[in-house]
Amino acid sequence: MDTKTYAVVDLETTGHSSAKGDRIIQIAIVFIKNGKIAEKYARFVNPGQKIPAFIRQLTSISDADVEDAPYFEDIAKEVSAHLEGTVFIAHNTDFDLSFLQAEFARCGIPLWTGKKMDTVELSKIIFPASPSYRLQDISEELGIPLPSAHRADDDAEATGHLFLACYEKLKLLPEDTLNLLHRRSFQLKTDVSTLFHEALKVARKKGTSDAYSNFRGIPYRKIGRAEYTNSKELIYPSDDEVKTKLFKTGFPGFERREQQFRFMDLVWETLESESEVIAEVPTGIGKTVAYLLPAAIRSIETGKPVVISTFTNHLADKIQSDEIKRLNKMLGVDITATVLKGREKYISLGKLEELLRIADESYDETLTIMQILVWLTETNSGDLDELNVSGGGQLFVDRIRKQSNVMAPDEQIADYHSVLLNECSHSNLIITNHSMLLADLNRGQVLFNSLAGLVVDEAHQLAQTTSQLNQTVFSYTNWKYVMGQVGSDTDGQLLQQIFELSTRFGTSTSRTKENLGMSFESFTTTFDAAVGSIAYHNPPLKDKQKGNRKIYSLAGLKNAEVYFEKVAVAMSDYLDKADALTNQLVVHKENMTLTEQAILSEWNYWIREIKIKAGEWIEIFLDLDATEFTVWVEKDRRSIPGSLSVIKHPIDGTATITKLVDRMKMENTGIVWTSGTLSIKDNLRYIPNQLGLDGAVPLVTFDAPAHFYEGAEIFIVADMPDIQQVSQPDYIEAVADTVIQTVMATGGRLFVLFTSQDMLRKTYDLIMESEQLDEYAIFAQGITSGSRMKLLKSFRQYDNSVLFGTNSFWEGVDVPGDALTAVIVVRLPFSSPTDPIFKAKAAKLTEQGLNPFAEYALPEAVMRLRQGFGRLIRTSSDKGYFIILDKRIETKSYGSRFIESLPKVPVKKVSLEVMVNELENCYNKQV
User: Fold this and answer.
1) pLDDT at 927
2) What CA–CA distance (Å, rounded) separates 836 from 851?
3) Residues 233-242: contacts with CB within 8 Å, 24+ apart?
4) Judging by DSSP bridges, how do beta strands 218-221 and 212-215 pair with one another?
């Protein structure tokens, strides 16, 4: 590295395409010599055109800034001279280098030649667990100064520091890891192999650190954690003054909250008396630490763990990373806490090692393997969710998930999941998710037993989790992918490799291969016929489903069961023949090379996947139970059969929860059910009843601090059209107009909550076509790529952002402070009458002589509106507006139920014009 000059380049441009007339408005080059940042070159450039508004806002570069600057033609030779003989570095060379080369060509300057390195590609490998590789994000994570993102001079310098940080970390990796990385680095898109070679030379001189273990040539950070012994005797702080002192230790500036202390007392009393309680604890009380503290003390007192169950793994990780540290500080002891997820969340080093023997890798697979090799030198958990891999890489990650507890002796030593299971027995707190908690009921070896207590947080989600746990899904694309892994006999494919093995060991004849091929063909033929009978079925006209997405009951298909049975028979025949082929090869395993063993293991893996799918096929298509399950088809008319899915979903999951409660009671385990939303007016036990909890279990409701919602107001837009009286296009046009005006009045920072993806997309399209919000960053679930958490993070990063969300954004999303100014509710969150789960539950209630609307549809919608409001005010200092566009809230008799369910804040029924004026006045004052 010392002998080379690296030129770190960043461009700001009027757009993405030089060919379409976009031009450079700023260029910066930072030179790295002798491992340090040296001189810098930065120029504004006159693009000869107006800078688009979005670019002005993004870069803070105005037309005035570039007015007197040279044109690129005037400095092209100068720039080319600076880059001559250097290694070109950029944060996304596909853009910066390509754009620069196009400008050189336009100006008649010879194209730059040399080696290039991309810090996006490099940082993905070196920092595999980083949540984002945007320059602004990774700079913040690594503590690299970036005063003004999207300014070429600052971006280039930050990129230079990022490059140096990558190299410094690279030099710390063990030699065996660097060997594996260097071998694959030649398959990358940029010339970083020289960097890996330099680091490898350094590693050979210093030797391997004893911080690492080695599994069949793959280094990994030693598994095992420090043993904690709590000799200090802890007594629960019954006195409020003692509580206050404890909280001031963990929370500087702590203000006493009476309801927080009372909830703590309730948790302690429940765990100590080994009883059961339901507690509704709204935002603002400090619920999490209030149950963790008594849980930790109870665990130390009894010598048994307390299980904390949350809805998502994200929340479980957050408790361990944030709250446990505070708890240790408050109590003055080391509370041992283990986050435990399902075994498929953890890496199988045995499977990884097998796949590394197979040389044929795509670019995505190579990049992902390199990320994993680096990650293994730093992870303490082996939790694959820590990795941030591309979409193509995710397929590889799914291949190396732990599938079985049957392992070779050396793999058992190197198995993260086994270590975590062992740690649970001597942890104070086991933090898990609802799925893991419920799945324990069906495990041969129970994990959650002999407990000092169970706290179920976000308890209202447990019913949904139960249903999803017992749900079975058929996906056409997934089935075809799995079948494709064993069905292709072209050169280099798995089937051809297995046949070559069979020939080498003389375990099969041409007749055997022919029979296997004919059996597979019969399987695929019957499968395609069965899928066709589903995919090309037209749902009854009475369903009146708009748009391309169609949902209908599987029970409506006539004579389809004959097709389903034929698939089951053909699949069984194929699996028998595949097993016979495998069994004949297994006896020769010891005589196979390591690569041949890996091929056989790969074949076994995919045959096992088909066996799993065979069970799913029978479960969905041949084991129909209309009283307990509902089965429906989903497809998009634009992509048949690729979009086809069939879902079998339980109608009622309370039996599973009852089984869990009964087991806990048999072991005298205290249970605390808690959530921010458990009840609604006139139906205080709505969620407890949904969970099937005993009516005798006390329900205790805590109130938010009196001043908590002082910054909130509710607007009902009075001049919106009635959603039941106008066409959908007319209503969407009114929604789009309201969103546009509200966004302009507030400056953005809005959630717009929909109840259907179809309406979301049409509203989004209309707003984008209008171009009235072109200066705002608009993110839309199902349109903008990325997960819910990624969309949320992007939303937080822009001051002028707007986020369109559907069902999953009504709850569980935390955006405190000024990052969220308003929530717009497009329509009251009733489930669609055509939703298969809703239809099945409504039919069951009707059979019982109950009114589905009053008993299910209305309370569910009221609860969801409460949860939507909860997105707005997350701290007592928050200010925001909850805007309801659906006039049914004031025209229907049930409308008052919605308003009464919300916190007591001012409710204003106003025209759109009046509301916009109020919002403008409010935010103009703030400015």
Assistant:
1) 43
2) 18
3) 234/296, 234/297, 234/300, 234/301, 234/331, 234/333, 235/297, 236/268, 236/272, 236/294, 236/297, 236/298, 238/265
4) antiparallel
Q: Which among 546, 921, 887 has a CA at the least distance from the CA of 734?
A: 887
Closest CA to 498 of 406, 577, 573: 577
Residue reference for tokens 């963790």:
292
Residues linked to residue 714 through DSSP beta bridges, in sequence order:
882, 907
E-strand stretches of 588-670: 629-636, 645-650
Question: What does the domain layout of the chain look like in residue ranges?
Answer: 5-170, 472-650, 712-926
User: Kind of pairing, strands 276-280 and 671-675?
Assistant: parallel
User: Active-site positions?
Assistant: 150
What is the distance between the terminal CA atoms of the chain, rounded to a whole angstrom? 50
712-926 CATH fold: Rossmann fold (3.40.50)
Torsion of CA 371, 377, 382, 387, to 10 degrees: -30
Write the CB contacts of 281 (distance below 8 Å, at least 6 apart in sequence): 259, 263, 287, 290, 674, 675, 676, 702
Tell me the C-alpha distance between 122 and 162, whole Å.
10
Q: Nearest 5°: phi and psi at 11?
A: -120, 145
Where do runs of H (alpha helix) occur along 870-908?
888-891, 895-901
Helices (H), 3-92: 53-59, 63-66, 72-83
Residue 385 gets which letter from DSSP?
Answer: G
CA atoms within 13 A on the CB side of 11: 28
How far from 363 is each of 170, 188, 391, 662, 788, CA to CA, in Å?
Answer: 21, 7, 12, 51, 27
Question: What is the SS3 assignment for 782?
Answer: coil
pLDDT at residue number 547:
66
User: Domain 5-170 sits in which CATH superfamily?
Assistant: Ribonuclease H-like superfamily/Ribonuclease H (3.30.420.10)
Place of tokens 């929860």: 657
Least Cα distance to 346 among 441, 420, 410 occurs for: 420
* b/e code 881-918 from CB counts within 10 Å (16+ = b): bbbbbbbbbeeeeebebbbebbbebeeeeeebeebbeb
CB atoms within 10 A of CB 730: 12
**Residue with token string 């702080």:** 237
Asked if 429 and 295 count as a contact pair (C-beta separation under 8 A), the reply is yes
Written as one letter, the residue type at 865 is L
Using H for helix, E for strand and C for coil, what is the string for 394-405?
HHHHHHCECCCC
Give the CA radius of gyration of the chain.
Answer: 31
Please give the structure tokens belonging to residue 117.
Answer: 């390195």
- Residues listed for the chain: 927
**Cα three-residue angle 185-189-190, rounded to 5 degrees:** 75
Interacting residues of 603 by C-beta distance below 8 A, sequence separation 6+: 486, 494, 497, 498, 582
Buried b (16+ CB within 10 A) or exposed e, 183-206: ebbeebebbbbebbebbbebbeee
> In this structure, which amino acid lies at residue 217?
G
Low-confidence spans in the chain with pLDDT less than 70: 1-2, 224-232, 359, 539-547, 626, 811-819, 924-927
Write a three-state SS string for 440-503. HHHCCCCCCCCCCEEEECCHHHHHHHHHHHCCEEEEHHHHHHHHHHHHCCCCCCHHHHHHHHHH
Query: Residue 814's pLDDT is what?
Result: 64
What's the rounded Cα separation, in Å, for the pair 849 and 828?
Answer: 26
Q: Which of 687, 636, 696, 641 is nearest to 665 (CA)?
A: 696
8 burial level (CB within 10 Å; 0-12, 13-18, 19+): buried
Q: What distance lies between CA 876 and its chain's CA centroid?
A: 28
How many whole angstroms separate alpha carbon 886 and alpha carbon 863?
16
- Of 173, 58, 88, 91, the closest CA to residue 126 belongs to 173
Dihedral sign for Cα 577, 578, 580, 585, please.
positive
* Alpha-carbon distances, residue 778 vs 781, 818, 923 (angstroms): 10, 17, 20
